[in-house]
Each structure stands twice: as C-alpha cells, then as structure tokens.
Amino acid sequence: MTHEDVLDNFLARQPLRVHRSDRRLARIVREAYPIGVPALIMKSSTDRLGESAGYTFHLGTPDEMLRRIASWLLTGAEGDQSRLLRLVERLWNRHGREDVALAALLLANLDHSTLDVDPWVVLAGCTRDSEPAEALLLSIEEMLRAGRSIPSEELLLDWCEGRAVDAHMSLLVSYAGSVRGHAVSEELLGHLSSIEIPDGDSLLGRVIQRLRDD
Fold it and tell me: Is there a contact between 26 and 91 (Cβ–Cβ < 8 Å)?
C-alpha cells in the first residue's frame, strides 16, 4: 500500500461531522502530516526545527500529500467554506511549516466571491509581526498559481507603509508579479527601494536588486 493510499484511508475514516469544526479539522490534519514522511526525516525534525526560521514544527510532509489533504478539506466543505477560512487563520496561528503550506493551498482555492473577502487582505491579517520570507513567498506563489490577480497598487503601497512583514510581502508580491509580466510603477519601486531589509536576508536582498535592475 502506498503512502497516498494510507493517507486517503485515514482521511476517508473521518466522520463527516468533523467538517463542521475548524478546531477538529486542525487536529486531524496535524495527525495526517506525518503519513508518508520517511522515519529518518521525522527523526531529524527536532534538529531541523532550530533551522525552520520561526516555524513551530517542520515535519517534511511532501507537497503532494499536502495537496491531497487540501483537496479532502475543500471537497468536504460542501459549499460552506467559511469554516475553511477560519481554519486558514487557525493554521497560521499554530504556525507549523506544514500548517502555513496547507493554509496557502486553502486560501488560494477558496471561493472568495462567495465568502466576500480579499484573499490578500486575509493573508496579511494572518501574518505575525515577523515571518520567514519563505512562508510569505510560498503563500504568494500559491495564490498566483491558482490564478488570483495580484493586489492593487494601492494595497501594495499601503503595505510598504505598514509593518515590516507587510512591506516585505509587498516586495515579494511585486517581484512575483513582475516575473509574470506585471509592470512595477516608478512610485511603487521607489517605496520598495526604501524598505529596510534585515541583515543577512539574501532572498529579500536579491529580490529588490532584481526589481531595480529590470
């Protein structure tokens, strides 16, 4: 039996009523994360936790397994996705690496018109005052991969004037958008160039340099 089969069987055994509670769903997905993770990786999770840049845990769950979990959650929502929106917030609060990745998948694929929310505003509202750039970029890339429009320039400019984590998200969104052909205005580039980059953060440093060079 493959790891995928084991995961599917685990999820299929869950009673339908679990989809009525974001708290129960958060507990179940935490149980599901280790399924399919090689024992050697699990054994080293404690060592890697110190290198996980602020995550509360990092188990090494493969992306394909996280996508299967997300599919199960979205299918079980049965048209009421408000609980999944609350689950997104709950996962960010718990803040495991897998939690953030799963939250990105869910947020990118929810029906935002039905929920009447701006997913970018939701994402910014979930972030802490300090976040790994990898976590922000992961969420941004998932949103754009799902076909979501990039935020308005007004929102990007607001982020530049907000918390450091908001400014960094504006920088990463602008770069991800530019890679996909969205022009960065001179005004926005000026604001992005004034963002303070943490010492030693090579990712953000490379991003702003590439935007300046384009």
Answer: yes
